[in-house]
Amino acid sequence: MKSEHAMEEVHFADETPPLKPESEGLWKVMIVDDDDFVHKVTELTLGDYHYQNTPVRYLHAYSGAEARALLREHPDTAVILLDVVMETENAGLEFARHVRKEANNSFVRIILRTGQPGQAPERKVITEYDINDYKHKAELSEQRLFTAITAAIRSYRDLRTIELGRLGLQEVICASAALFSAGSVQDFFVLALEHILRTGRCAGPCCRENGLVALGTDGGFEILESRGLASGPDNVPVGRLRELFERASREGRVLVLDQEFAARFFNSHTDQDFFFYVFFGRPLSETEQGLLHILGGNIAVALSNLFLTEEIVATQREVVLTLGEVVETRSKETAHHVKRVAEYSYVLAIKAGLSDERARLLRMASPMHDVGKIGIPDSILFKPGKLTDDEFSIIKTHTVIGHSILKGSPRRIMRTAATIALQHHEHWDGGGYPHGLVEDETHIFGRITALADVFDALSCDRVYKKAWPLNEVLDYLREKRGRQFDPFLVDIFLENLDEILAIRVAYPD
Amino acid sequence: MKSEHAMEEVHFADETPPLKPESEGLWKVMIVDDDDFVHKVTELTLGDYHYQNTPVRYLHAYSGAEARALLREHPDTAVILLDVVMETENAGLEFARHVRKEANNSFVRIILRTGQPGQAPERKVITEYDINDYKHKAELSEQRLFTAITAAIRSYRDLRTIELGRLGLQEVICASAALFSAGSVQDFFVLALEHILRTGRCAGPCCRENGLVALGTDGGFEILESRGLASGPDNVPVGRLRELFERASREGRVLVLDQEFAARFFNSHTDQDFFFYVFFGRPLSETEQGLLHILGGNIAVALSNLFLTEEIVATQREVVLTLGEVVETRSKETAHHVKRVAEYSYVLAIKAGLSDERARLLRMASPMHDVGKIGIPDSILFKPGKLTDDEFSIIKTHTVIGHSILKGSPRRIMRTAATIALQHHEHWDGGGYPHGLVEDETHIFGRITALADVFDALSCDRVYKKAWPLNEVLDYLREKRGRQFDPFLVDIFLENLDEILAIRVAYPD
Fold first, then answer.
1. Residue B7: its pLDDT value, please?
2. Which among A77, A142, A316, B372 is least surrounded, fewest beta carbons within 10 Å?
3. Stretch B355-367: mean pLDDT, rounded?
């Protein structure tokens, strides 16, 4: 968890005036005509044209070739007023075909304006080309042009509105795939917050957005992740968060308000309450609100999957640790020997360059390494004095007994545990048991567990001995480097002694 | 798994000619005018009008009120040719407002046709009403009408195309939420197949669709789920499936072909190959293909989550069973006592009306019921003869020892196991130990485990006794009904003896 400071006040970034959701707050109208006069007259005729309080920006092209380049630069053009005859007799029609087929732009509305109707017979053109209006230049009065442009921009707006919804959904789907693939709750929070912010992010650079993920505590909230907070003079009191949190609990998980997103997700396994809050700093459109609802729903499903998986994995670890420990010590006193060995092994595996996945596998399997001791009689296992050769031979069998208990399973954790049980008494120089394996004939998991197990045994009290002082234990490891233990692992162990000792402090007997 | 027959030939339903994806294969054009002559002339003028090989169907309304009713009936109307002055001076404009605001239809294109321009000044109307074209009746020549209708239908088509994509995405999102919530792989297959079929389902009733989910086997496929197969004379040989399966393996998981969907999903935990195949019987549109790719990707993510969860749960069960068994028998001989007790308990829980979730919890926790025996010396635990009172007192402590080993965990399974460990020697009449609880003072899990444990102990060989014949075991349960055991549970046990005995056969010692 990134930050654990208690939150008293939440600071938001500076407020800036919200932009229109439309690309740059204006409608782009491209005039394509080889006659400069037509350009001038068109602008003059339309004058200070606005549609829905948004002005028009005119783009000018004087040939089909120029128009192509201009459209590449402005793919968000709303309307093209298109002449037919330019550098060739049907340069305009060729450009119209290019727009739909090659530039793949099905949004821009094309109004064909022809001066010589004979060149482009109306019926043929309107049928064969994917254009949206056909006008004779002669009859294009101010009023007609006004109507044509208004209808075209309106159509463009309708198309863009649905398209924005479609794109938003596509983003939600990508977001969801990412969310459902998140490996941990922490990763998930970072991702989910990012996707909520993105859904409500407007095209312009200056839209204010602030968000956080918090864990509900007795007194208030503990912030786990935050974006854009504490960077401005603006404050939102914790009271507002608490109010929304309570509303989210009462009305259902996801609240999408005019400018805010708030949701509460409850982990029933751990009785933890998680709270998402985002303040967008501008009113959300209906489309955005709909998308946020869908995204919120997906977050809920993905999170409850993740909570469940984390619970199962945590339970599995506890089962293995608890049963491994009681088998090891054969008593109800559940000390922390197998837990420490598991944690030491994890650290050694990571430092030895194993992947986190393999290191976790080792940590999960390692507590079962002594399960074979179940087959050794009390009288030998708990004998206070020195063992006879026969008794020691019996003790040694705990490796093969453990292996035979665990090896039958097809599960990866169990198979791994079987290998560890069999090999954790092998020595680097071949002097170990049961098989006298040499060097890396012993699996890396076996070598790691061997070192971790001996370190813990020596540095703690046992029925037959007192704990050794740390320096004596370390001397022992150095002495046995390259003989009993993998020399590379002993080096790693000594280099990372701080982490090892921290584990011993965290899980004392 | 629904059917396990080997598949030699796959039969598909009859082929029928595919319909156009558009709603009913025609464009609906509504003429709204109080003058019957206008209706007649419009139809006459447009004649046998087609757009993209699809004909027009004319709908007729003679007033604003009629138009509202007609639109309710035909919300998929493409174009409205709208008169202004009808039952009132601006009945047409009122209807236009109704279409957008009340009927919430932003798809239908509205062409206003006015006979008295003074009644509806063009600039004001085009600005204030969400209409798409403004025409004077006087100037509506055949060519003009043709152009206006073509442009309007084209706009409608563009809007519908994006909207269909958007709706498809929305369905994929709903599908994904359902898929990610699936509790088991089987449920998942049914759902996933349904959603793939739905994505490619055309509006008409007669589109052919056939699908299956299969498990790859050495020889070919084992069908797990199928839809619409084996109901027609048409055959697709297994060879085609094998070909696509190999292609899916080679090129990536999801193949979307002209008329087919094929995907392979590999469970790396179990080395199982799952294969989805759907034949749609008509060419898929680009939108549909895109949606199927997205859906396929989501299926992959959801399925790999599910595989992982199933693996973790299975591993957890094995860990608990294996360790529970070795603690119970204190030997490397992993017999099946705790496994049988777990399975008997599951059956009894279900038959006693507990939810599947609770029954599974009991099954998972039950193998740990005797974990406290770890604290009992060999000499007492394995004593062949009769125990002294003191020795029996020590044996009895395995309940509280087990409880104290397990109770420290916050995990549900461990807490449940702690309760079972403590209570599985209590009697219905209060004569049990350690606390002499009466009737339902003992938790239902404790009562169930008590019965299952004694049944298994009596009907199998133990170190201190031979197995009893079945009839003697059942006589014992009947005799102890309402004394040692919950009478209700004994009844359930006897009523479901077949299932109980099947478990004993499945897991022998």
1. 41
2. A142
3. 93
Is A206 found in the same domain as A295? Answer: yes
- The residue range of the domain holding B91 is 27-140
**Closest CA relative to residue B376, chosen from B393, B359, B398, B355:** B398
Q: Is pLDDT of A264 > 60?
A: yes
Quote the CA–CA distance of B132 and B135 in Å, as a whole number. Answer: 10
User: Is pLDDT at B276 greater than 80 in this prediction?
Assistant: yes
Q: Do B374 and A332 touch (CB under 8 A)?
A: yes
For the stretch B89-130, pLDDT in tens is 989 999 999 999 999 999 999 999 988 777 778 888 988 999
Instruction: Identify all chain A residues contacting B133, using CB atoms and an 8 Å cutoff.
Output: 147, 151
In a domain, A262, yes or no: yes
Question: What is the C-alpha separation between B308 and B321, in angstroms, rounded?
Answer: 20
Q: How far is CA A11 from CA A7, A229, A279, in A?
A: 10, 5, 11
Pair (A421, A456) in one structural domain: yes
Q: Are residues A238 and A372 in the same domain?
A: no
CB proximity list for B212: less than 8 A, separation 6 or greater: B10, B193, B223, B224, B225, B226, B227, B229, B276, B277, B278
For the question of residue B373 being annotated catalytic, the response is yes
DSSP string, A86-125: SSSTTHHHHHHHIIIIIS---SSEEEEEES-GGGS-HHHH
Q: Given an 8 Å threshold on Cβ–Cβ distance, is B314 in contact with A411?
A: yes
Rounded CA-CA distance B198/B214 in Å is 19
- pLDDT score at B53: 87
Contact B298 A173 (CB under 8 A): yes
> Which tokens is B486 given?
């919950």
Taking CA atoms, what residue in B is nearest to A130? B154
pLDDT in tens, A408-452: 888 888 899 999 999 999 999 999 999 999 999 999 999 999 999
Residues in chain A closer than 8 A to B165 (CB atoms): 166
Q: Return the beta strands (E) in A153-271 as ranges.
A: 210-216, 221-227, 234-237, 254-256, 260-267
Is residue B76 within 8 Å of residue B29, measured between CB atoms? no
Out of A115-119, A162-166, B238-242, the most confident range is A162-166
Angle formed at CA A120 by CA A114 and CA A123, multiple of 5 degrees: 110
Asked whether residue A412 falls in the same domain as residue A280, the answer is no
